[in-house]
Each structure stands twice: as structure tokens, then as C-alpha cells.
């Protein structure tokens, strides 16, 4: 009986695990310390921008905005990717640039308009 309970718990866990891990931007989660390529980071930044638009945190005008630049900068905890998008359609000049930050291996850190 004990074996049956353990086996059914294991099967339930394995069946539910993929659904729990799936989600938007799931392909942009990296393990290890190998530096991500610029192409991978820029793709993940575009996905993150689209998710922010979909969630209503950014205006819909950001959806069509193309990448401005991606660079490796010194962050608080070492090297970080800083990806920027410029949207001249935004009235507030302080919010015309969106910065998306990733760790050097490619994991999302933050997104803001300050670049800090």
C-alpha cells in the first residue's frame, strides 16, 4: 500500500511538472555560468518587452519598437546585459527608452526607464 501511494504521488508530480514550468519567456531561462550570446539576449529582451505590453505595463505603441542596442556592462553583481529600446511616440521624454537587464548567462533581472 505504501509503495502504491509513493508511486501515485510520483506520477502526479511528473504529470503536473511541465505545466508548472511552462510559461511565457520560458525559453529565456538559462542555467550555469556560460555567457549568453548577444542574439539570445536580444531575442529574450524582445520577448520580455512583448510580455510587458501584453500585461498592460507598457503602452501598445511599444509592440512595434525595434531594438536600439545591446551591450555588456558592469552591474552590481558583475557583468550584465543592458538592452535598450527607443520609442519616440512616448510623450514623456524620460520614458522614451526602455532598458531591459539580464545576467551575463542570460537570465532576466529587471526592466525600467532609468537605465540603472
Report on the structure:
The chain is α+β, with helices and mostly antiparallel strands. It has one domain. The protein contains two helices and four strands; from the N terminus they run H-H-E-E-E-E. It has helices at 2-21, 38-54; strands at 67-75, 78-86, 97-103, 108-112. The chain has a four-stranded antiparallel beta sheet with strand order 1-2-3-4, covered by helices on one side. The N and C termini lie far apart (57 Å).
Task: Compile the SSE list and pairings.
Layout: H1 2-21, H2 38-54, E1 67-75, E2 78-86, E3 97-103, E4 108-112
Antiparallel strand pairs: 1-2, 2-3, 3-4
Report a brief summary of the structure.
The chain has helices at 2-21, 38-54, and strands at 67-75, 78-86, 97-103, 108-112. The protein has one domain.
Amino acid at each position: 500500500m505504501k509503495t502504491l501511494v509513493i508511486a501515485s504521488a510520483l506520477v502526479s508530480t511528473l504529470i503536473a511538472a511541465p505545466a508548472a514550468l511552462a510559461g511565457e519567456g520560458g525559453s529565456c531561462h538559462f542555467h550555469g555560468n556560460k555567457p549568453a550570446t548577444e542574439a539570445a539576449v536580444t531575442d529574450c529582451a524582445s520577448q520580455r518587452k512583448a510580455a510587458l505590453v501584453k500585461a498592460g505595463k507598457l503602452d501598445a505603441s511599444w509592440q512595434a519598437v525595434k531594438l536600439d542596442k545591446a551591450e555588456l556592462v558592469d552591474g552590481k553583481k558583475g557583468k550584465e546585459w543592458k538592452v535598450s529600446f527607443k520609442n519616440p511616440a512616448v510623450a514623456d521624454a524620460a520614458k522614451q527608452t526602455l532598458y531591459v537587464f539580464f545576467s551575463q548567462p542570460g537570465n532576466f533581472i529587471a526592466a525600467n526607464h532609468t537605465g540603472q
